[in-house]
């Protein structure tokens, strides 16, 4: 993909894990040591587009951008073009803010922001990662990226991403699991994912919260189809005696026969955000209707999931990372007992390198996932738990690739694996650092 398309440290990690286990009461079982290759080390942005780096390539960049520094074989004209492009990229970064500036996290934040910018096409499409198996656009990843762009002072990019979501959304307010980058639709027969509807509304609320009232109202009106279709869809899914939505695949990307917290909680986050947007637009009756739906869903989640300790499935079992969705910044107030459940979930999800798996019932392969680990950094920051937030952020920082990108996975020995960078992880890191500054 080019911009023209739309545009080992295992010992230290285990020591840090031991410290956090004392704080959180965690207990880590011996792992299996699965291996996944590192498919790419990072990105390079040049006048001809965006390309990827070979694994282990420690690419020097110009000025905190993803523009490569000229080498001895670079011609004078090429060097000048790279310098000019780096100045443009640096100007874009400087037009907003870098969360964590002045702290040990500034280089990671700058790199994450540059990576997100490189993965954003001119038409608002966000690619999950520049690798054939990840070269799609997920509504969830787009939603978090839009929020990250907004929180770092880049509202135009945030709105572009939301406009993309509005464009691909079905008339009934649903979203496919993922979309091809050419806008042709889903690449396969995966079932639609209900969480996308909730995440789009939550993201809209996050973006509007960064704008003044006049700009926020104008943006909400501009994105009115996304707001109305998503809200109507969410309310329709709850129009049953249980006030819970039907089962759907969620961020685990697997078929589900039983309702998961990863489907129910994003809908709650979305409805609470939508109620505030309708109030902003001066539509109190609509805001009240949506607020009533959110209240019914909140009560149902507390009743059906909370009574079981907020497991992944409504029928019970281990917890997963969706416990974080029951807390700010996703919902207005934590659900009853959700903070304790979220903290307890860490013991079930921790992996030997120090990060987290998607859930307690995830396969015991020893692999940490940065989307979930960074999600817990964000949730910790929003709860005011700076120690935990900085621990998770520090762990991610220590496990970046040679070029400084955040990988999707980290093996049991601390090695980065799979793709780097991953848009969702980069977005979560930026949101967590921004939240620490609130």
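Q: What amino acid sequence fits the structure above?
A:
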């Amino acid at each position: 993909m080019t911009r023209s398309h739309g545009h080992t440290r295992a010992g230290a990690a285990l020591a840090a894990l031991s410290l956090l286990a004392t704080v959180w009461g965690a207990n880590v079982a011996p792992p299996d040591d699965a291996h996944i290759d590192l498919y790419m080390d990072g990105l390079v942005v040049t006048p001809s587009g965006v390309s990827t780096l070979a694994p282990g390539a420690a690419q020097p960049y110009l000025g905190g951008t993803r523009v490569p520094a000229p080498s001895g074989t670079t011609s004078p004209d090429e060097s000048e073009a790279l310098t000019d492009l780096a100045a443009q990229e640096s100007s874009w970064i400087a037009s907003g803010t870098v969360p964590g500036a002045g702290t040990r996290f500034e280089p990671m934040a700058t790199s994450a922001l540059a990576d997100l910018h490189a993965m954003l096409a001119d038409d608002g499409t966000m690619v999950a990662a520049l690798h054939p198996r990840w070269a799609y656009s997920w509504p969830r990843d787009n939603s978090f990226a839009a929020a990250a762009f907004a929180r770092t002072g880049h509202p135009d990019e945030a709105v572009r991403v939301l406009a993309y979501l509005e464009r691909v959304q079905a008339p009934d307010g649903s979203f496919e699991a993922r979309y091809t980058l050419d806008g042709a639709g889903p690449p396969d027969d995966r079932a639609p994912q209900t969480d996308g509807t909730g995440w789009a509304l939550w993201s809209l609320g996050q973006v509007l919260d960064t704008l003044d009232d006049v700009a926020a109202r104008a943006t909400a009106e501009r994105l009115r189809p996304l707001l109305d279709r998503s809200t109507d869809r969410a309310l329709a899914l709850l129009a049953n005696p249980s006030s819970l939505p039907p089962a759907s695949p969620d961020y685990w990307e697997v078929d589900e026969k039983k309702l998961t917290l990863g489907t129910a909680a994003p809908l709650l986050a979305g409805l609470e955000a939508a109620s505030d947007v309708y109030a902003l637009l001066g539509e109190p009756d609509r805001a009240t209707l949506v607020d009533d739906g959110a209240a019914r869903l909140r009560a149902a989640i507390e009743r059906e999931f909370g009574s079981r300790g907020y497991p992944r499935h409504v029928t019970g079992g281990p917890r997963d990372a969706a416990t974080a969705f029951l807390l700010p910044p996703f919902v207005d107030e934590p659900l009853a007992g959700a903070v304790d459940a979220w903290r307890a979930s860490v013991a079930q999800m921790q992996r030997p390198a120090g990060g987290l798996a998607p859930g307690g019932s995830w396969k015991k392969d020893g692999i940490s996932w940065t989307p979930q680990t960074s999600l817990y950094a964000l949730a910790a920051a929003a709860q005011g738990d700076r120690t935990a937030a900085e621990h998770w952020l520090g762990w991610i920082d220590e496990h970046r690739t040679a070029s400084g990108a955040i990988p999707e996975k980290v093996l049991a020995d601390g090695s980065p694996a799979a793709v780097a960078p991953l848009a969702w992880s980069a977005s979560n890191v930026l949101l967590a650092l921004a939240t620490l500054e609130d």
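Q: And what stands out in the fold?
A: The beta strands are 43-46, 49-52, 368-369, 409-410, 416-417.
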